[in-house]
Amino acid sequence: MTRLTRDDLEAARDRLVPDVVADGLRVLFCGINPGLMTAATGHHFARPGNRFWPVLHLSGFTPRRLAPAEQGELLTYGLGITNVVARATARADELTAEEYREGGRLLADKVTRLRPDWLAVVGVTAYRAAFADRGAAVGPQDRVFGTTRVWVLPNPSGLNAHWTAATMAEEYARLRART
Q1: Which residue ranges does the record assign to the Uracil-DNA glycosylase-like domain (predicted)?
Q2: Active-site entry in 43, 44, 50, 83
C-alpha cells in the first residue's frame, strides 16, 4: 500500500465510505464512523493499529486474517460493515450528539431494510450515544430492529487499551457462537 501523507488524510475528511452490505447477513458490524485512513483508502478499519481484522479472524468469523482491501470477501461469510455516522473524521470525538442520534435513526432504518440476524455495534460509547441507552454494556442488548438482534462489542481501535486483541476475540466469539 502506498504511504499516505498528512495532506492525503486531510483531503479525505468528510468523505463517505461505501458500506459492505447485502440482504440477510448473519452479522452486520457497525463502526462508529470512518477514520481518515479508511476514507482515504475506501477500506473499513484501514488504520494499521486497528484490531478489527485480526480479531475477526481470532474469533473464528473468518478462516484467515483479511486485509482491509479484502473487505468484500466478508459477504461470502455472511458478514458486512457499516457505520453509525457516515462522515469521516480524524477522531470520533469530532462527531456531535446530533450526528450520533441521526446516525442511530438511519442505522435502524438500514437494519430494518437489510434484515441481518445480528447488528454488532463495535463501541459501547457509540451505541449509547446513537440509541440514548446510557446503561448499555458490552454484550447482547434487549433492543431489536424488526427481527435483528443487537450485540455491542468492544471498539477495536488501538486507542481502546482496556481490551486486548485476545479478550476482544473472546467477546466477538461469544457473538459468533450465537450466529
Answers
A1: 18-173
A2: 44
